[in-house]
């Protein structure tokens, strides 16, 4: 078999599909794709979903496709990253699927290490560490999610640990058969979409493994961080989260899964969203905090009573959810407004970014 024929067969039968949604990414996407073309693991396809870009993104993709036939292009109207990813998943031919954002880049062994992890451990997802890098200075702002390879998260054992896993999709490798079961939503979220997508995935998996290395480089660009949140956006994503709970109920999930979903709702709606809402000068924070508490109690009541967010349980089991368990106490004692003021003072004074 000639080398060219062998390469053509690999391209037609990829093991890993990399889905890359792109919207107005002309300044960054070529560097991103080049980092994928350099992967040590060659049996890949790169599915670029041009989500209605108004700049030169599509032409750049077409140019790169001429250079490497592993690049596939989906050109569509703008519908947001949720549906762009679903379109990429539908087209994916690989046994496994990874996601990369169009303005980041990965290390050469990114796919190889993640793939080896799922194969060795028989896991449904593998996760690697990542670096947050400042675009201008090129300095590493933080290094996160790097755990020992022996760490495993399993259903009916320690699955509550998924609550504190970073919700981005881009430092992970998934079984394609699981992602192809993910349903579209009537009201796809444009904020917190990664968290909600993972919540749907967690419903259908049994095991997660880790790679002890920083293989994904997340570029922090000036003006790209979303610190504020409008009132209408809160209502929209609240509705999307309720849709996801309905999927859990249809799936006949047990108490453990409902507890985990409600804990994720508390973390991302009760804490993260309220932190963002507090930065919006047009938002009445006290009113939003009150409404948000009503929303959580009406739709995700397990957040208050689950043992996964109890301080003693977290201490006893050395759980990574301890920080959230402490904030839950603050919430219950109606001191979250004071906590936010203190949080802002600390982060501004020490110039640090405490992740939730």
What would you note in describing this structure?
The chain has 356 residues and is α/β, with parallel strands linked by helices. It has 2 domains: 218 residues, Spore Coat Polysaccharide Biosynthesis Protein SpsA, Chain A (Alpha-Beta Complex), CATH 3.90.550; 120 residues, no CATH class. 45% of the residues lie in helices and 18% in strands. It is built from 14 helices and 10 strands. Strands 1, 2, 3, 4, 5, 6, 7, 8, 9 and 10 form a 10-stranded mixed sheet that branches. Helix 9 packs antiparallel against helix 10. The protein is globular and about 60 Å long.
**Poorly predicted parts:** none
Q: What class do helices, strands and sheet pairing give?
A: alpha/beta
Shape: globular
CATH class of the largest domain: Alpha Beta
Most strands sheet: 10 strands, mixed
Mean pLDDT: 91
What keywords describe this structure?
356 residues; alpha/beta; Spore Coat Polysaccharide Biosynthesis Protein SpsA, Chain A; 10-stranded mixed β-sheet; 10 strands; 45% helix; globular
